[in-house]
Design a protein that fits this description.
Two copies of one chain form a homodimer. Chain A is mainly α and about 130 residues long. The first copy, chain A, is built from six helices and two strands, in the order αααββααα. Chain A has a two-stranded antiparallel sheet with strand order 1-2. In chain A, strand 1 and strand 2 form a beta hairpin. In chain A, helix 4 packs across helix 5. Chain A starts with a helix and ends with a helix. The mean pLDDT of chain A is about 90. Chains A and B meet through helix 1, helix 5 and helix 6 of A and helix 1, helix 5 and helix 6 of B. The structure holds a DNA duplex (30 and 30 nucleotides).
Chain lengths: ~130, ~130
DNA sequence: TCGAAGCGTAACCTAAGAAGTTACGAGATG
DNA sequence: CATCTCGTAACTTCTTAGGTTACGCTTCGA
């Protein structure tokens, strides 16, 4: 797996779960399907759990399942849960020079604005939408 | 310097050059201002040169200057020259599973679309614009 | 004409981030 | 109680970008 592998893994898992929402899947199973490691799966899906998209159950016969129906999980939910931000949130480096600062502010402002529209548009598609085609 | 430092360095340099377009600046000078290394400066500005934004002159009393007036250099020109792409262009990993593939396609499509509007909006601001404020 | 000043580039080192791996504790079930 | 599974820590690569050194090529000026 390469870049954006978290997103790929998340979408992979969600799309499979959408096909059989009642079944619990273990991280080992998911990892085998995705060609990666159970720990990596738990890391990535952990973020989706924190975002309220998935539920994990510990102990014997535990595993992972959707926290709500696929019709109510959008691509934006996934994107936001993974904290994939376009804009480098850290602006620790306040440029000393005011003109450079103004330029950078401008770029940052536009990027943040554009990211809002990205999330908005991703919010228009649900996991279930894509399955139906 | 941290993340997006190429962009920061490019904007820094361009904003200074816009103030005195006739003066040639050496990479050593620019590096000193920006708190980095001449080689790094030549790397980054090299991209702007390839994009036709800057001109570099070799030899004694050589250096860097704008290839055209600051009114005709937009933030989009800089962004594109640095090849800052939001979308991971490499889709080498064709997902085996068709549903996952459809989901990923959808995300990629939206991101590419959004990036177009980003470039369009960055194109509305020139280096000179920001200086005037 | 020759030396110094610049750029262009290669090669290497280092730092940071992400994935892969191993290991182990905690909780739940049968 | 034995076993299964998640949650996490710790460690090891691997990749990417920046920083650094070095050197060849070009150009100006004394």
């Amino acid at each position: 797996m390469k870049r954006n592998s978290r997103l790929a893994l998340a979408l992979h898992t969600l799309s499979h779960m959408a096909g059989d929402p009642n079944r619990l899947q273990t991280s080992a199973e998911i990892a085998a399907h995705a060609g990666t490691n159970p720990v990596v799966v738990r890391r990535v899906l952990g973020r989706l759990r924190e975002a309220g998209l998935l539920i994990s159950e510990k102990g014997h016969s535990g595993g992972w399942r959707l926290a709500r129906s696929p019709q109510h999980i959008t691509l934006a939910d996934v994107y936001v849960a993974l904290e994939e931000s376009l804009v480098a949130s850290e602006e620790a480096e306040a440029p000393s020079c005011s003109v450079e600062h103004a330029l950078f502010e401008r770029v940052t402002h536009v990027m943040k604005d554009v990211e809002k529209s990205l999330v908005q548009r991703l919010g228009e598609t649900t996991i279930a939408d894509v399955r139906e085609r």
